[in-house]
Amino acid sequence: MLKLFFNRSSFMVGFMNFVAACEMGWLIWKASTGAMSLGPATLFLMLSWWGINLLNWIPWYQETKGADGKPAKLGIRLHFHKCVVPTGYILTLAFTLKLLGASELAMLPFGLMFLPIFYVAALLLYFHFRDRSSLTPGYFSHNFYLKDKDPSCTP
What we know:
The N and C termini lie far apart (47 Å). This protein has a domain at 7-39 and 65-130 and 138-146. Helices cover 62% and strands 0% of the residues. The protein contains five helices and no strands. By secondary structure, the chain is mainly alpha-helical. The protein has helices spanning 2-6, 11-32, 40-57, 76-99, 104-130.
């Protein structure tokens, strides 16, 4: 049961991320018609959805195939893929409350939950851009070295 709700590749996680996107569109539509106003906390949450999903969609490394033949998400790609799990659930709840009439002050705790996520993402991106290694991400932790006859090394 936990795999259904918290596995980064499960249907439920993708569905909740989709519901959050639909609710975000509904909020923008309601704001454009003047039915409600969007404050800074709600706008930050919307930007958080876009930011985390953009980080997940970017191919940070050359394509690496997994054991099943599908493209594998390794290194920071795996971390950004895992960030979609809390994003989908937190933002679905936050946007539902906003659609039900919650104030901007009620959106603030949801925004605070994203600060550690963005802090870790910034650190990972910093180290990613400083890394000059030519090894595949997860080369040792995923035992790729056992498959190589002549391992590639960094200069």
